[in-house]
Amino acid sequence: MMTKLFEAATLGSIDVKNRIFMAPLTRNRADNQTDILPDMAIDYYRQRASAGLIITEATQISPMGKGYFAAPGIYTQEQTAQWKKIVDAVHEEGGKIVLQLWHVGRISHTSLLPDNARPHAPSAVKAKAETFTENGFESCSDPVEMTEDDIKSTISDYKTAVQNCITAGFDGVEVHAANGYLIQQFLSDQTNKRTDQYGGNIENRARFLFEILDAVTGVMPADKVGIRFSPMVQGTNDLKATNPLEDYTYIIDKLNNYSLAYMHFVEKFSHAALRNEDEHAVMVLREKWDGFYIANGDYNLIDATVAVNSGFADAIAFGKPFIANPDLPYRLKTGAAFNPDRTDTYYGGGAEGYTDYPFLKST
Ligand SMILES: Cc1cc2nc3c(=O)[nH]c(=O)nc-3n(C[C@H](O)[C@H](O)[C@H](O)COP(=O)(O)O)c2cc1C
Q1: Among the atoms of ligand 1, which is closest to the Cα of residue 298?
Q2: For a substitution probing ligand 1, which of 237, 320, 342, 344 has the most ligand atoms within 8 Å of its CB?
Q3: pLDDT number for residue 274
Q4: Ligand 1 centre and the CA of 55: distance in Å?
Q5: Which atom of ligand 1 is nearest to the CA of 270?
Q6: What total of structural domains would you count in the chain?
Q7: pLDDT digit string (tens) for 195-222?
Q8: The pLDDT of residue 154
Q9: Are 145 and 194 in contact (CB under 8 A)?
Q10: Residue 196: its pLDDT value, please?
Q11: Based on CB atoms within 10 Å of each CB, which residue in 173, 188, 210, 297 is the most buried?
């Protein structure tokens, strides 16, 4: 088949065997007290190592960064030791894996935070959104505005998390700046109402992001650091912005100086068509970016081939297709049918819908 999806590539200093990447997918199977993944997560990631690159599920950099029941962390030695087993398993299978660094900001609930603290946010603007707690889906709690000290200690938490990623042997990290979590809350004029140097114009609203990138690239070389944005998706986790095209034009211009491994866009959310002006903006923003570009959002074999063959994208991150098809690249290559998807087992639970999807060769 005339597709470049199976060609090897290099992003920054990461060599990958194909351009079919696994998108970050939260699966809520960690121990909720320790934020440590279970042993079956080793198998889960090992099974998916035929992806050119695995981007792990979003992983909190600190206890205050947590927003969902049973999501994993990367801030203790024990968590790091478990991640190391996962990384080793993926490497044994010839795969590559980067960890997605996460702080949810206001998308959290007091029951998930230390001493039932209120969630941290750039400003005390409550999200009209829900998060997943021990009791199922609940409204997000009222956030508190972060002080400058909170900002400093959060940046330092990113550093520690990246040091832990190095200890675990990850091939790199992805800074999660998408989907309405803390970094995007700072970027948006609707959630960031600060009057200090972190609020106001886009230069100020982007300061937190760039301070994080400075910290992260101070610990890990920039050519192993990627970033994820969802610039034109409006409404995820109640995140909207007045002028995203203008904001991200500034951000990407500046980002080009960092020589990062890649930029990754959630171009759209599944089955939600973008308005023409938003699709156009995605193309304008992609064009501004000098580096390796990962596209995501409802891609199938044909869309992905067109995007990669044309040079629009350097790789495609597939999300939901990788949940039900651990051997997704093989199925894309051979035209085999996909396994039926069990959406009721996406979030939480055990091995069912996690490690028990059959491989083509064994079916
Ligand atoms: C079960 C599930 C969990 C997800 N978890 C994350 C996550 O941890 N981090 C993230 O950036 N996006 C997350 N997403 C979004 C996906 O990475 C992806 O952007 C989205 O599913 C669209 O891609 P797709 O159409 O290929 O699935 C999640 C999506 C699903 C369905």
Answers
A1: 25
A2: 320
A3: 78
A4: 11
A5: 25
A6: 1
A7: 999 999 999 999 999 999 999 999 999 9
A8: 98
A9: yes
A10: 98
A11: 173
Query: Which pLDDT score is estimated for 363?
Result: 44
Of 32, 35, 31, 56, which is closest to residue 44 (Cα–Cα)?
56
Does the pTM surpass 0.85? The reply is: yes
CA 296 to ligand 1 center in whole angstroms = 9
Active site residue 198: no
Q: Which of 80, 75, 72, 85 is nearest to 29 (CA)?
A: 72
Q: Which residues of the chain have pLDDT under 70?
A: 1, 270-272, 362-363
| 147 CA to centre of ligand 1 in angstroms | 31
Position 362 in a domain: no
User: How high is the pLDDT of residue 275?
Assistant: 87
Q: What is the reported pLDDT for 271?
A: 60
Domain span at residue 182 reads 4-345
Give the CATH number of the domain where residue 214 resides: 3.20.20.70
Q: Is residue 194 part of a domain?
A: yes
Q: Whose CA is nearest to atom 10 of ligand 1?
A: 24
Token digits of residue 47: 């099974």
- 178 Cα: distance to centroid of ligand 1 (angstroms): 11
Side-chain-side CA neighbours of 77 within 13 Å: the count stands at 0
Place of tokens 């301070």: 211
Of the residues 44, 68, 75, 181, only one is catalytic, namely 181
**363 in a domain, yes or no?**
no
**Is 348 near ligand 1, meaning CB less than 6 Å away?**
no
Q: From CA 341, how far away is CA 338, in angstroms rounded?
A: 8
Atom 14 of ligand 1: nearest residue by CA position:
25
Sign of CA dihedral 255, 256, 261, 267: positive
* Phi, psi (degrees; rounded to nearest 5) at 294: -105, 125
**Residue 151 placed within a domain:** yes
